[in-house]
Design brief:
Length: 469
Protein backbone atom coordinates (compact mmCIF):
# COMPACT_ATOMS: atom_id res chain seq x y z
CA UNK A 1 0.00 0.00 0.00
CA UNK A 2 1.04 3.60 -0.55
CA UNK A 3 1.22 6.35 2.01
CA UNK A 4 -1.41 8.96 2.64
CA UNK A 5 -1.99 11.50 -0.08
CA UNK A 6 -0.91 15.14 0.27
CA UNK A 7 -3.99 17.08 1.28
CA UNK A 8 -3.80 19.88 -1.28
CA UNK A 9 -3.48 17.58 -4.27
CA UNK A 10 -6.02 18.44 -6.93
CA UNK A 11 -7.40 15.34 -8.59
CA UNK A 12 -9.78 14.55 -11.42
CA UNK A 13 -11.74 17.68 -12.20
CA UNK A 14 -10.41 18.04 -15.75
CA UNK A 15 -13.78 18.43 -17.43
CA UNK A 16 -14.98 21.10 -15.01
CA UNK A 17 -11.69 23.00 -15.15
CA UNK A 18 -11.65 22.88 -18.94
CA UNK A 19 -15.18 24.31 -19.04
CA UNK A 20 -14.20 27.23 -16.80
CA UNK A 21 -11.05 27.98 -18.79
CA UNK A 22 -12.95 27.85 -22.09
CA UNK A 23 -15.34 30.47 -20.74
CA UNK A 24 -12.42 32.52 -19.41
CA UNK A 25 -10.74 32.60 -22.83
CA UNK A 26 -13.82 34.30 -24.29
CA UNK A 27 -12.71 37.45 -22.40
CA UNK A 28 -16.22 38.71 -21.73
CA UNK A 29 -18.55 38.85 -18.76
CA UNK A 30 -19.69 35.55 -17.32
CA UNK A 31 -21.80 34.53 -14.35
CA UNK A 32 -21.00 30.91 -13.53
CA UNK A 33 -22.83 28.87 -10.88
CA UNK A 34 -20.94 26.06 -9.15
CA UNK A 35 -22.88 23.88 -6.74
CA UNK A 36 -22.83 20.42 -5.22
CA UNK A 37 -22.84 18.60 -1.92
CA UNK A 38 -20.66 19.71 0.95
CA UNK A 39 -17.05 18.42 0.78
CA UNK A 40 -17.33 17.43 -2.89
CA UNK A 41 -14.47 19.69 -3.96
CA UNK A 42 -16.09 22.94 -5.18
CA UNK A 43 -13.66 25.21 -3.34
CA UNK A 44 -10.60 23.38 -4.62
CA UNK A 45 -11.99 23.61 -8.15
CA UNK A 46 -12.37 27.39 -7.80
CA UNK A 47 -8.93 27.82 -6.29
CA UNK A 48 -7.35 25.72 -9.03
CA UNK A 49 -9.11 27.81 -11.66
CA UNK A 50 -8.08 31.20 -10.26
CA UNK A 51 -4.49 30.36 -9.30
CA UNK A 52 -3.01 31.93 -12.48
CA UNK A 53 -5.58 34.70 -12.86
CA UNK A 54 -6.33 38.10 -11.37
CA UNK A 55 -8.98 37.24 -8.86
CA UNK A 56 -10.59 37.79 -5.49
CA UNK A 57 -11.97 34.77 -3.64
CA UNK A 58 -14.46 35.42 -0.85
CA UNK A 59 -15.81 32.74 1.48
CA UNK A 60 -19.20 33.79 2.87
CA UNK A 61 -20.41 32.70 6.29
CA UNK A 62 -23.20 33.37 8.76
CA UNK A 63 -21.91 36.67 10.13
CA UNK A 64 -23.86 39.88 9.64
CA UNK A 65 -23.85 41.55 6.25
CA UNK A 66 -21.91 44.46 7.74
CA UNK A 67 -19.12 42.22 9.02
CA UNK A 68 -18.83 40.42 5.70
CA UNK A 69 -18.68 43.66 3.75
CA UNK A 70 -15.89 44.87 6.05
CA UNK A 71 -13.88 41.74 5.27
CA UNK A 72 -14.65 42.06 1.58
CA UNK A 73 -13.41 45.66 1.68
CA UNK A 74 -10.13 44.44 3.16
CA UNK A 75 -9.76 41.89 0.36
CA UNK A 76 -10.53 44.43 -2.35
CA UNK A 77 -8.42 47.11 -0.70
CA UNK A 78 -5.44 44.78 -0.53
CA UNK A 79 -5.80 43.72 -4.14
CA UNK A 80 -6.33 47.20 -5.60
CA UNK A 81 -3.97 49.01 -3.17
CA UNK A 82 -6.88 51.03 -1.80
CA UNK A 83 -6.03 51.81 1.83
CA UNK A 84 -9.25 53.71 2.48
CA UNK A 85 -11.41 50.81 1.31
CA UNK A 86 -9.29 48.33 3.27
CA UNK A 87 -9.83 50.40 6.41
CA UNK A 88 -13.53 51.22 6.04
CA UNK A 89 -14.92 48.31 4.02
CA UNK A 90 -17.99 48.47 1.80
CA UNK A 91 -21.22 49.98 3.09
CA UNK A 92 -23.58 47.81 1.04
CA UNK A 93 -23.40 45.10 -1.59
CA UNK A 94 -24.24 47.34 -4.53
CA UNK A 95 -21.02 49.28 -3.79
CA UNK A 96 -19.05 46.11 -4.57
CA UNK A 97 -20.43 46.01 -8.10
CA UNK A 98 -19.90 49.73 -8.65
CA UNK A 99 -16.29 49.37 -7.47
CA UNK A 100 -15.65 46.43 -9.80
CA UNK A 101 -17.02 48.31 -12.80
CA UNK A 102 -14.89 51.34 -12.03
CA UNK A 103 -11.62 49.51 -11.33
CA UNK A 104 -11.57 46.40 -13.52
CA UNK A 105 -10.47 46.93 -17.12
CA UNK A 106 -9.20 43.44 -17.99
CA UNK A 107 -10.44 39.88 -17.30
CA UNK A 108 -10.94 39.40 -13.57
CA UNK A 109 -12.54 36.70 -11.41
CA UNK A 110 -14.71 37.51 -8.42
CA UNK A 111 -15.65 34.25 -6.70
CA UNK A 112 -18.21 34.13 -3.89
CA UNK A 113 -18.10 30.75 -2.16
CA UNK A 114 -20.98 29.50 0.02
CA UNK A 115 -23.31 32.09 -1.48
CA UNK A 116 -26.36 30.58 0.31
CA UNK A 117 -25.03 31.98 3.60
CA UNK A 118 -25.31 35.50 2.15
CA UNK A 119 -28.87 34.83 1.06
CA UNK A 120 -29.71 33.39 4.46
CA UNK A 121 -28.31 36.43 6.26
CA UNK A 122 -29.83 39.02 3.91
CA UNK A 123 -33.02 38.04 2.08
CA UNK A 124 -32.55 40.83 -0.45
CA UNK A 125 -29.00 39.91 -1.48
CA UNK A 126 -29.99 37.94 -4.60
CA UNK A 127 -32.04 40.88 -5.87
CA UNK A 128 -29.04 43.12 -5.20
CA UNK A 129 -26.77 40.74 -7.14
CA UNK A 130 -29.29 40.80 -9.98
CA UNK A 131 -29.23 44.59 -10.05
CA UNK A 132 -25.46 44.66 -9.72
CA UNK A 133 -25.03 42.25 -12.62
CA UNK A 134 -27.59 43.93 -14.89
CA UNK A 135 -26.52 47.53 -14.27
CA UNK A 136 -22.78 47.30 -13.62
CA UNK A 137 -21.13 44.01 -14.62
CA UNK A 138 -22.93 42.62 -17.64
CA UNK A 139 -20.74 44.41 -20.20
CA UNK A 140 -17.45 44.22 -18.28
CA UNK A 141 -14.66 41.58 -18.31
CA UNK A 142 -15.83 40.28 -14.92
CA UNK A 143 -16.00 36.53 -14.38
CA UNK A 144 -18.41 36.18 -11.45
CA UNK A 145 -18.61 32.80 -9.73
CA UNK A 146 -21.36 31.98 -7.24
CA UNK A 147 -20.79 28.71 -5.43
CA UNK A 148 -22.71 26.86 -2.74
CA UNK A 149 -23.18 23.56 -0.92
CA UNK A 150 -26.89 23.89 -0.22
CA UNK A 151 -28.46 22.58 -3.40
CA UNK A 152 -31.90 23.73 -2.30
CA UNK A 153 -30.73 27.29 -1.62
CA UNK A 154 -28.67 27.53 -4.81
CA UNK A 155 -31.72 26.55 -6.82
CA UNK A 156 -34.13 28.87 -5.04
CA UNK A 157 -31.76 31.87 -5.12
CA UNK A 158 -29.94 31.39 -8.43
CA UNK A 159 -31.06 28.53 -10.68
CA UNK A 160 -34.85 28.20 -10.53
CA UNK A 161 -37.24 30.08 -12.79
CA UNK A 162 -38.45 32.25 -9.89
CA UNK A 163 -34.91 33.07 -8.64
CA UNK A 164 -33.86 36.74 -8.96
CA UNK A 165 -30.72 35.72 -10.85
CA UNK A 166 -32.50 33.36 -13.22
CA UNK A 167 -31.40 33.85 -16.83
CA UNK A 168 -28.21 35.69 -15.92
CA UNK A 169 -25.86 32.72 -15.72
CA UNK A 170 -23.81 31.71 -18.73
CA UNK A 171 -23.04 28.30 -17.31
CA UNK A 172 -23.39 26.05 -14.30
CA UNK A 173 -21.44 23.13 -12.90
CA UNK A 174 -22.99 20.55 -10.63
CA UNK A 175 -19.89 19.11 -8.98
CA UNK A 176 -20.55 15.42 -8.36
CA UNK A 177 -18.67 12.90 -6.24
CA UNK A 178 -15.81 11.18 -8.03
CA UNK A 179 -16.47 7.77 -9.49
CA UNK A 180 -14.45 4.70 -8.52
CA UNK A 181 -11.70 5.14 -11.10
CA UNK A 182 -11.31 8.85 -10.42
CA UNK A 183 -11.16 8.19 -6.69
CA UNK A 184 -8.41 5.59 -7.10
CA UNK A 185 -6.00 8.41 -7.96
CA UNK A 186 -6.07 9.31 -4.26
CA UNK A 187 -4.36 6.02 -3.47
CA UNK A 188 -2.25 5.15 -6.48
CA UNK A 189 -0.66 1.74 -6.21
CA UNK A 190 -3.33 0.28 -3.94
CA UNK A 191 -4.82 -3.00 -5.13
CA UNK A 192 -8.33 -3.11 -6.57
CA UNK A 193 -9.70 -5.12 -3.63
CA UNK A 194 -8.12 -2.89 -1.00
CA UNK A 195 -9.32 0.31 -2.60
CA UNK A 196 -12.85 -0.99 -3.06
CA UNK A 197 -13.07 -1.23 0.73
CA UNK A 198 -11.96 2.42 1.04
CA UNK A 199 -14.45 3.45 -1.64
CA UNK A 200 -17.18 1.64 0.27
CA UNK A 201 -16.27 3.66 3.35
CA UNK A 202 -16.11 7.05 1.67
CA UNK A 203 -17.76 7.05 -1.73
CA UNK A 204 -16.21 9.55 -4.07
CA UNK A 205 -16.12 12.54 -1.75
CA UNK A 206 -12.59 14.02 -1.91
CA UNK A 207 -12.67 15.36 1.65
CA UNK A 208 -13.59 11.94 3.02
CA UNK A 209 -10.96 10.16 0.94
CA UNK A 210 -8.35 12.55 2.28
CA UNK A 211 -9.21 11.54 5.84
CA UNK A 212 -8.40 7.89 5.20
CA UNK A 213 -4.94 6.44 5.87
CA UNK A 214 -3.89 3.72 3.44
CA UNK A 215 -1.53 2.19 5.98
CA UNK A 216 -4.47 1.32 8.23
CA UNK A 217 -7.23 -1.24 7.68
CA UNK A 218 -10.78 -0.15 6.82
CA UNK A 219 -11.80 -1.08 10.39
CA UNK A 220 -9.07 1.09 11.89
CA UNK A 221 -10.00 3.98 9.60
CA UNK A 222 -13.64 3.62 10.63
CA UNK A 223 -12.72 3.66 14.31
CA UNK A 224 -10.20 6.53 14.09
CA UNK A 225 -11.94 8.80 11.61
CA UNK A 226 -15.68 8.09 11.76
CA UNK A 227 -16.57 6.66 15.16
CA UNK A 228 -14.44 9.07 17.19
CA UNK A 229 -16.74 11.87 18.34
CA UNK A 230 -13.90 14.39 18.07
CA UNK A 231 -13.55 13.83 14.30
CA UNK A 232 -15.63 15.87 11.85
CA UNK A 233 -16.98 12.77 10.10
CA UNK A 234 -18.71 11.70 13.31
CA UNK A 235 -21.30 14.49 12.93
CA UNK A 236 -20.97 15.06 9.19
CA UNK A 237 -24.29 13.58 8.09
CA UNK A 238 -26.22 15.36 10.83
CA UNK A 239 -24.62 18.64 9.85
CA UNK A 240 -25.51 18.20 6.18
CA UNK A 241 -29.12 17.28 6.89
CA UNK A 242 -29.65 20.12 9.36
CA UNK A 243 -28.22 22.59 6.84
CA UNK A 244 -30.56 21.44 4.08
CA UNK A 245 -33.79 20.40 5.80
CA UNK A 246 -36.38 21.98 8.05
CA UNK A 247 -37.59 18.69 9.55
CA UNK A 248 -34.39 16.64 9.80
CA UNK A 249 -35.84 14.11 12.26
CA UNK A 250 -38.29 12.75 9.69
CA UNK A 251 -35.59 12.48 7.04
CA UNK A 252 -33.26 10.74 9.49
CA UNK A 253 -35.84 8.01 10.00
CA UNK A 254 -36.34 7.57 6.24
CA UNK A 255 -32.62 7.42 5.48
CA UNK A 256 -32.04 4.96 8.31
CA UNK A 257 -34.82 2.72 7.00
CA UNK A 258 -33.41 2.72 3.46
CA UNK A 259 -29.85 2.12 4.64
CA UNK A 260 -31.09 -0.90 6.62
CA UNK A 261 -32.66 -2.48 3.55
CA UNK A 262 -36.18 -1.04 3.56
CA UNK A 263 -36.16 -0.02 -0.09
CA UNK A 264 -39.83 -0.13 -1.10
CA UNK A 265 -42.25 2.66 -0.21
CA UNK A 266 -44.44 0.25 1.77
CA UNK A 267 -41.46 -1.02 3.76
CA UNK A 268 -40.38 2.53 4.56
CA UNK A 269 -43.90 3.38 5.75
CA UNK A 270 -43.99 0.31 8.01
CA UNK A 271 -40.55 1.09 9.43
CA UNK A 272 -41.04 4.82 10.02
CA UNK A 273 -44.77 5.20 10.61
CA UNK A 274 -44.92 8.09 8.15
CA UNK A 275 -48.27 8.55 6.43
CA UNK A 276 -48.33 7.36 2.82
CA UNK A 277 -49.63 10.74 1.64
CA UNK A 278 -46.58 12.48 3.14
CA UNK A 279 -43.87 9.94 2.35
CA UNK A 280 -43.57 10.72 -1.36
CA UNK A 281 -43.04 14.40 -0.59
CA UNK A 282 -40.14 13.54 1.72
CA UNK A 283 -38.69 11.02 -0.73
CA UNK A 284 -38.90 13.57 -3.53
CA UNK A 285 -36.95 16.12 -1.51
CA UNK A 286 -34.25 13.57 -0.65
CA UNK A 287 -34.00 12.66 -4.34
CA UNK A 288 -33.76 16.31 -5.28
CA UNK A 289 -30.90 16.77 -2.82
CA UNK A 290 -29.18 13.73 -4.38
CA UNK A 291 -29.18 11.83 -1.09
CA UNK A 292 -31.27 8.96 -2.42
CA UNK A 293 -32.13 7.51 -5.83
CA UNK A 294 -35.25 5.80 -7.09
CA UNK A 295 -34.26 2.80 -9.16
CA UNK A 296 -36.48 0.82 -11.53
CA UNK A 297 -35.67 -2.26 -13.64
CA UNK A 298 -33.63 -1.18 -16.63
CA UNK A 299 -36.18 -2.52 -19.10
CA UNK A 300 -38.97 -0.27 -17.77
CA UNK A 301 -40.01 2.29 -20.38
CA UNK A 302 -41.63 4.87 -18.09
CA UNK A 303 -39.63 5.44 -14.91
CA UNK A 304 -42.18 7.73 -13.29
CA UNK A 305 -45.09 5.32 -13.71
CA UNK A 306 -43.26 2.12 -12.82
CA UNK A 307 -44.62 0.36 -9.75
CA UNK A 308 -41.36 -1.53 -9.26
CA UNK A 309 -39.35 1.41 -7.94
CA UNK A 310 -36.85 0.84 -5.13
CA UNK A 311 -35.02 3.50 -3.14
CA UNK A 312 -31.33 3.45 -2.33
CA UNK A 313 -28.88 5.76 -0.60
CA UNK A 314 -26.79 7.61 -3.21
CA UNK A 315 -23.78 8.29 -1.03
CA UNK A 316 -21.63 5.44 0.30
CA UNK A 317 -20.61 7.42 3.36
CA UNK A 318 -24.26 8.03 4.27
CA UNK A 319 -24.76 4.23 4.21
CA UNK A 320 -21.77 3.77 6.52
CA UNK A 321 -22.93 6.52 8.86
CA UNK A 322 -26.47 5.16 9.18
CA UNK A 323 -25.13 1.62 9.66
CA UNK A 324 -22.38 2.29 12.17
CA UNK A 325 -22.83 5.73 13.75
CA UNK A 326 -26.47 6.76 14.00
CA UNK A 327 -27.80 3.65 15.83
CA UNK A 328 -24.89 3.62 18.31
CA UNK A 329 -24.40 7.31 19.08
CA UNK A 330 -24.90 6.92 22.80
CA UNK A 331 -22.18 4.27 23.01
CA UNK A 332 -19.83 6.19 20.76
CA UNK A 333 -20.21 9.38 22.80
CA UNK A 334 -18.57 7.57 25.74
CA UNK A 335 -15.93 5.89 23.59
CA UNK A 336 -17.54 2.43 23.58
CA UNK A 337 -16.79 0.92 20.16
CA UNK A 338 -17.06 -2.85 20.70
CA UNK A 339 -20.63 -3.36 19.48
CA UNK A 340 -20.11 -1.22 16.37
CA UNK A 341 -16.86 -2.94 15.45
CA UNK A 342 -18.45 -6.34 15.95
CA UNK A 343 -21.18 -5.38 13.51
CA UNK A 344 -18.58 -3.99 11.09
CA UNK A 345 -16.66 -7.26 11.12
CA UNK A 346 -19.79 -9.25 10.26
CA UNK A 347 -21.48 -6.84 7.86
CA UNK A 348 -18.87 -4.80 5.99
CA UNK A 349 -18.27 -7.46 3.34
CA UNK A 350 -21.95 -7.25 2.34
CA UNK A 351 -21.61 -3.48 1.91
CA UNK A 352 -18.51 -4.06 -0.23
CA UNK A 353 -20.56 -6.45 -2.34
CA UNK A 354 -23.12 -3.71 -3.06
CA UNK A 355 -20.30 -1.32 -3.90
CA UNK A 356 -18.79 -3.87 -6.28
CA UNK A 357 -22.07 -3.96 -8.21
CA UNK A 358 -21.90 -0.18 -8.49
CA UNK A 359 -18.28 -0.37 -9.70
CA UNK A 360 -19.09 -3.14 -12.19
CA UNK A 361 -21.44 -0.68 -13.85
CA UNK A 362 -18.45 1.61 -14.43
CA UNK A 363 -16.32 -1.30 -15.61
CA UNK A 364 -18.78 -2.56 -18.19
CA UNK A 365 -19.33 0.95 -19.53
CA UNK A 366 -15.57 1.25 -20.03
CA UNK A 367 -15.61 -1.94 -22.12
CA UNK A 368 -18.45 -1.09 -24.49
CA UNK A 369 -16.01 -1.13 -27.43
CA UNK A 370 -15.29 -4.81 -26.71
CA UNK A 371 -18.96 -5.71 -26.15
CA UNK A 372 -21.45 -3.27 -27.73
CA UNK A 373 -22.62 0.24 -26.94
CA UNK A 374 -25.42 0.51 -24.38
CA UNK A 375 -28.26 2.98 -24.52
CA UNK A 376 -29.26 1.85 -21.01
CA UNK A 377 -27.56 -0.25 -18.39
CA UNK A 378 -28.62 -1.03 -14.83
CA UNK A 379 -30.20 -3.59 -12.52
CA UNK A 380 -33.20 -5.74 -13.40
CA UNK A 381 -35.61 -7.61 -11.14
CA UNK A 382 -39.09 -8.96 -10.79
CA UNK A 383 -40.78 -10.75 -7.87
CA UNK A 384 -38.57 -13.83 -7.98
CA UNK A 385 -35.45 -13.03 -9.99
CA UNK A 386 -32.75 -10.37 -9.83
CA UNK A 387 -29.90 -9.70 -12.25
CA UNK A 388 -27.09 -7.38 -11.16
CA UNK A 389 -26.62 -5.65 -14.53
CA UNK A 390 -28.47 -5.62 -17.82
CA UNK A 391 -27.33 -3.53 -20.78
CA UNK A 392 -29.52 -2.79 -23.80
CA UNK A 393 -29.21 -1.51 -27.35
CA UNK A 394 -32.63 -1.25 -29.03
CA UNK A 395 -31.35 -0.51 -32.54
CA UNK A 396 -28.98 -3.48 -32.54
CA UNK A 397 -31.43 -5.62 -30.54
CA UNK A 398 -28.53 -6.64 -28.32
CA UNK A 399 -28.74 -7.34 -24.59
CA UNK A 400 -26.10 -8.31 -22.03
CA UNK A 401 -26.73 -9.92 -18.64
CA UNK A 402 -24.13 -9.69 -15.87
CA UNK A 403 -23.56 -11.04 -12.37
CA UNK A 404 -21.11 -9.49 -9.88
CA UNK A 405 -19.62 -11.82 -7.26
CA UNK A 406 -17.71 -10.31 -4.32
CA UNK A 407 -16.67 -13.58 -2.76
CA UNK A 408 -13.52 -15.40 -1.70
CA UNK A 409 -14.43 -18.29 -3.99
CA UNK A 410 -13.69 -18.56 -7.70
CA UNK A 411 -16.74 -18.26 -9.93
CA UNK A 412 -17.65 -21.49 -11.72
CA UNK A 413 -19.83 -22.73 -14.56
CA UNK A 414 -22.83 -23.00 -12.23
CA UNK A 415 -22.99 -19.19 -11.96
CA UNK A 416 -23.00 -18.79 -15.74
CA UNK A 417 -25.68 -21.47 -16.08
CA UNK A 418 -27.83 -19.72 -13.46
CA UNK A 419 -27.39 -16.37 -15.22
CA UNK A 420 -28.44 -17.83 -18.58
CA UNK A 421 -31.50 -19.35 -16.94
CA UNK A 422 -32.43 -16.09 -15.21
CA UNK A 423 -32.02 -14.13 -18.45
CA UNK A 424 -35.00 -16.02 -19.91
CA UNK A 425 -37.24 -14.11 -17.44
CA UNK A 426 -36.33 -10.74 -18.95
CA UNK A 427 -39.08 -9.75 -21.36
CA UNK A 428 -37.32 -7.60 -23.96
CA UNK A 429 -37.36 -8.38 -27.70
CA UNK A 430 -37.70 -12.07 -26.84
CA UNK A 431 -37.03 -14.30 -29.83
CA UNK A 432 -35.46 -11.41 -31.71
CA UNK A 433 -32.39 -10.44 -29.74
CA UNK A 434 -28.69 -11.21 -29.56
CA UNK A 435 -27.76 -12.23 -26.02
CA UNK A 436 -24.44 -11.70 -24.24
CA UNK A 437 -23.32 -12.58 -20.73
CA UNK A 438 -20.70 -11.18 -18.36
CA UNK A 439 -19.38 -12.42 -15.03
CA UNK A 440 -17.44 -10.24 -12.61
CA UNK A 441 -15.47 -11.88 -9.82
CA UNK A 442 -13.40 -10.70 -6.89
CA UNK A 443 -11.53 -14.03 -6.80
CA UNK A 444 -11.20 -15.16 -10.39
CA UNK A 445 -12.75 -18.11 -12.21
CA UNK A 446 -12.49 -21.88 -12.13
CA UNK A 447 -10.44 -23.69 -14.77
CA UNK A 448 -13.59 -25.37 -16.08
CA UNK A 449 -15.34 -22.07 -16.65
CA UNK A 450 -12.30 -20.55 -18.36
CA UNK A 451 -12.10 -23.61 -20.62
CA UNK A 452 -15.81 -23.54 -21.50
CA UNK A 453 -15.85 -19.82 -22.25
CA UNK A 454 -13.10 -20.20 -24.87
CA UNK A 455 -15.74 -21.87 -27.04
CA UNK A 456 -18.23 -19.01 -26.58
CA UNK A 457 -18.17 -15.66 -28.37
CA UNK A 458 -20.89 -14.07 -26.27
CA UNK A 459 -19.47 -14.44 -22.74
CA UNK A 460 -17.12 -11.98 -21.03
CA UNK A 461 -15.20 -12.61 -17.82
CA UNK A 462 -13.90 -9.81 -15.61
CA UNK A 463 -11.42 -10.68 -12.88
CA UNK A 464 -11.99 -7.74 -10.50
CA UNK A 465 -11.92 -5.03 -13.19
CA UNK A 466 -9.83 -6.72 -15.88
CA UNK A 467 -11.34 -8.42 -18.94
CA UNK A 468 -9.59 -11.82 -19.04
CA UNK A 469 -11.00 -13.45 -22.18
Amino acid sequence: MVGRIIINKFINRKEELEFLNDKWREEKSHLIVIYGKRRVGKTELIKQFIQDKKAIYFLADKRTTKDQLVELGQLFGGHFNDEILAKNGFSEWIDVFIYLRKNVKEPFVFAVDEYPYLAETDKSVSSTFQKGWDQYLRDTPIFLILSGSSIAMMESEVLSYKAPLYGRRSGQILVKPLNFYQSRDFFKGMSFNDFLAFYTLTGGMPAYLLEMSSVLSPEANLKNKVLDRKEFLFNEVEFILREELREPRTYFSILKAISWGKTRAGEIINETGIEKTNLHKYLGILEHLQLIEREVPVTESDLSKSKKGLYKISDNFFKIWFQYVYPYKSNLEIGEYSEVLRKFQTGFSALCSFTYEQVCLEIIKKHQAQVFSFEKVGRWWDRNVEIDLVGLNTDLKKIIFAECKWSGRSVGTNILDELIEKSKQVMWNNGNRKEYYALFSKSGFTDNLLKDVKKMENVYLFDQDKLVN
